[in-house]
Amino acid sequence: MARRSILVVEDEEDIRELVSYTLLKEGYQVASVATGEEALALAQAQPPDLILLDLMLPGIGGLAVCQQLRSQPDTAHIAIVMLTAKGEEGDIVAGLNAGATDYVTKPFSRNVLLARIRAALRHAPPRSDDGALDDESIQIHNLLIDRRRHAVFVDGNPVELSATEFRLLLVLARKPGWVFSREDILDAIHGDSYAVTPRAVDVQIVGLRRKLGKAGEYVETVRGVGYRLKE
Known about the structure:
Strand content: 15-25%
Radius of gyration: 20 Å
Structural class: alpha/beta
Mean pLDDT: 83
Number of strands: 12
Largest sheet: 5 strands, parallel
Number of helices: 8
Order of helices and strands: EHEHEHEHEHEEEEHEHHEE
Strand order of the largest sheet: 2-1-3-4-5
Distance between the termini: 28 Å
């Protein structure tokens, strides 16, 4: 697996170079840009594992950059840590509401920043050496399933599922567009010897949709047959 990659987006050259040097010493792959436009172009061309994002940027600001990244399926999963001098409660709430994974204010402690980055990366899906999502990951729309770590992300935010809900989602996601009967789903999740009624699947589907939020709309009911994950 490739080293974790970080994109530093900071218009102040001294801070950009200091942060980049610190991350390089920690063993990360690092790229850096000074504007929101450059950040969007690079993130879409070669998505990093994490973006360290200043809010006050020339041109497109950090909040807009974050919102645009979260709205695109290819970049929605990226961990985003905002690093900014704007530390009022309203600023932090706005950043988190825009989709930031975490929020660090300037001036910052090197050790605290590195700890926040490590914490954010624990929820970021791994990528292969060519920069693509790891083979153990499935992405459909803004929904990402990391099979190796039993983790699910919607717009880059982790979703807590039970073991059964995760297996149910994985059954549907392996063949998007295919319709699975309740019996098919039960067999795939528990095996054909499991003593539970097919209607128990309906209960699990309700819980899964609720936890996925808007992405729950991808789990479609095919009346009289079963369920499928929308392509």
